[in-house]
Design brief:
With about 375 residues, this protein is of the alpha+beta class. The chain contains twelve helices and 16 strands. The strands form four sheets. An eight-stranded mixed sheet has the order 3-2-8-9-10-11-1-12.
Length: about 375
């Protein structure tokens, strides 16, 4: 797992040959290499065999309630914004078998899973995704009861980050300081440039293991001009972001605005589908389900993602605590942007914009937060 300390600017450059070698070196070291591929009209993380699987010349155009796969005018491999599937899909998977039980001679025998956790090498994560991974580390590793399943996947992971040189209309990481430049949390980081149709990558080293992997790859020394262009490209991506989440007074506005009428306005639009929680890279809620076969000789216990937008999520003896879309959206937003800070010393949002893009109603977390902050200021002014 990469060090949390900041990495120095890289001084090496690799081309397509070097990137192909990187994938092979990681596979040779026993990693399952995960990276971006074009699939079902989007770009998602899936296992990679080689650079031919990468989304050469493709991008994603993301807007509220809209995400389109589009062709770029060049052959960039990483010229896109984040898709709906983040690293959480692999490190904190949507479903996980905890154990099974078999009936034998009238008694049940518990069978725990014996397969070792996969060793993942991720190619392509952006700064916001590394920030989200750090948030999940805080929740699932550093709290009172560590998640051993997450721990097994996370601690063996190798991360090849990619610095963002494009931003979507839904991105707002710059306002939260979580992007577009990844400062830490990676073993290697790449900044892509395309000259005469050929991609090449400035490489930054973030860990000793990253330096060890890079030593097995053909590199050349980066020029001052290449380093300057890489920095400018990432800075330009940040400057193009139009959305902003203002955090000053946000927690107080959410806590004080429990009965604010604006929640009714959101509820009139919210479908309670849970899309925002499924694509959010920091949401971690799960439920446990037990199943059995028709012979009643085998049973299994599975852990699955859950969402605070479902009525059953808050079910206790006597019924659900949050019966309305208003109460469920209020719970999600208040936890994400207020209570999370009290619990885990940071926001539960990293500005990736996925919840805006994949909400079928186009509900914008930055607009809702701003409306509640404004309502709080008006209320205070009238008091």
């Amino acid at each position: 797992m990469a060090s949390s300390s900041s990495a120095a600017h890289g001084n090496s450059v690799i081309g397509l040959t070097g990137l192909a070698q990187l994938i092979e070196v990681l596979k040779h070291r026993g990693f399952q290499v995960i990276g971006p591929v074009v699939r079902d009209g989007s770009i998602v993380y899936e296992p990679l065999e080689g650079i031919e699987d990468l989304p050469s010349g493709w991008t994603l155009e993301a807007e509220p309630a809209t995400c389109r796969l589009k062709k770029r005018s060049d052959g960039a491999l990483f010229g896109y914004v984040v898709g709906q599937r983040g690293l959480k899909y692999f490190l904190h998977p949507p479903q996980l078998k905890l154990y099974s039980a078999e009936r034998e001679n009238g008694e049940f025998r518990i069978l725990f899973e014996q397969d070792p956790a996969p060793r993942y090498a991720f190619i392509g994560p952006r700064a916001c995704e590394l920030a989200a991974m750090a948030r999940q580390d805080r929740v699932l590793l550093e709290d009172r009861y560590p998640d051993m399943h997450y721990d097994a996947r996370r601690r063996g992971a190798f991360v090849v980050a990619v610095q963002c040189t494009v931003s979507a209309a839904t991105c707002f990481c710059a306002s939260l300081g979580t992007g577009p430049r990844a400062q830490s949390g990676f073993d290697l980081a790449l900044t892509e440039s395309v000259d005469d149709g050929q991609p090449h990558f400035l490489v930054e080293v973030g860990s000793e293991e990253g330096a060890s992997v890079l030593a097995e790859i053909e590199t050349s020394e980066a020029s001052a001009e290449q380093m300057r262009k890489a920095v400018e490209a990432v800075d330009a991506a940040g400057s193009k972001q139009s959305r902003c989440l203002k955090t000053t007074g946000l927690k107080e506005a959410l806590y004080d605005g429990f009965e604010d009428p604006h929640w009714d306005d959101v509820a009139a639009r919210c479908l309670s589908c849970g899309n925002c929680t499924m694509v959010c890279p920091t949401c971690f809620c799960v439920t446990v389900e037990d199943t059995s076969d028709v012979t009643n000789k085998r049973a299994e216990r599975w852990r699955k993602w859950d969402s605070c937008f479902t009525q059953s999520f808050s079910y206790i003896h006597g019924g659900s605590v949050r019966l309305t879309p208003k109460s469920r959206y209020r719970q999600w937003l208040t936890h994400k942007l207020a209570a999370w800070s009290d619990q885990f010393d940071s926001l539960g949002c990293v500005g990736c914009g996925r919840c805006i893009t994949w909400c079928p109603a186009g509900i914008d977390i930055t607009e809702e937060a701003a409306a509640l902050q404004q309502s709080s200021r008006v209320s205070i002014g009238q008091a």
